[in-house]
Amino acid sequence: MEGYILETCVDSVESAMAAERGGANRLELCGNLIIGGTTPSPALYEEVRRHCGLRIHVLIRPRFGDFCYTEHEFRIIRGEVKLFRELGADGVVIGCLRPDGTLNLEQMKALMEEAGNMSVTLHRAFDVCSDPYKTLEEAVDLGIDTILTSGQENGCLAGQKLLTELAEQADGRIDILIGSGVDASAIRELYPKVKTHSYHMSGKVTLGSEMEYRKEGVNMGLPSLSEFEIWRTSEEKIREAAEALQGFQKMQDGRK
Predict the structure, then answer these.
(1) Model confidence over 22-74: pLDDT tens digits?
(2) Which residue ranges form the domains of the chain, and what is each CATH number?
(3) Prediction pTM value
(4) 33-38, long-range: CB within 8 Å, 24+ apart, which pairs?
(5) How many CA atoms lie within 13 A of 90 on its CB side?
(6) Alpha carbon distance 57, 120 (integer Å)
(7) Which of 109, 113, 144, 151 could form a disulfide with 162 if both were Cys (CB 3.0 to 4.6 A apart)?
């Protein structure tokens, strides 16, 4: 069994299959990765489950933007945690904050109860919380399994100092899953320095649309986003990251 986690965030069946072929050992299933990820549809979950044998952790995020949710939004989040538990998801990826940047403990406790036996990851709401050290302890007390974080920076390499501190503070009580900007080179930089063997990446590449006829000047969303580009996971990028992790594992096994 691998001594590391290589989780790939995907928003399509094609990306999920590429991640598995490349050597990922867990999926974070999302919708709309181009806006940071939202809750995927049950139909997408079921189709990915049909074609992939990996563990699936489902992102529960009702919209783009902050993590301070209205009463209606929270009801949706809670209902989706229940839905994916009933569908057989292996885990959920959640996070709710108060306006002051602290973890919304009341909402998180309710979600933990709804999650039941599923694994729970506190997502990158952690990266915009006001006190990461306190929030880590609260996550441990809640029984959360994993914190996904870039060290409160836009990229994991810039967040190396905090990532190192968080991994030391966690001390095996909760898994620190490094995300944002993760690829093979980032793993080679961080693995010897940060006491965690868990990494999260999309491995995305931009593909051109198969559309031959292209109506210009009509946008379905933000004008900055092209209607004729698709993000997909690169099997090769995942394989390079997996090989980097496997190389470190072999080195460690050789020292035993």
Answers:
(1) 999 999 999 999 999 999 999 999 999 999 999 999 999 999 999 999 999 99
(2) 5-255 (3.20.20.380)
(3) 0.94
(4) 33/9, 33/202, 33/204, 33/231, 34/225, 34/231, 35/64, 36/61, 36/64, 37/9, 37/11, 37/61, 38/62, 38/63, 38/64
(5) 14
(6) 8
(7) 151
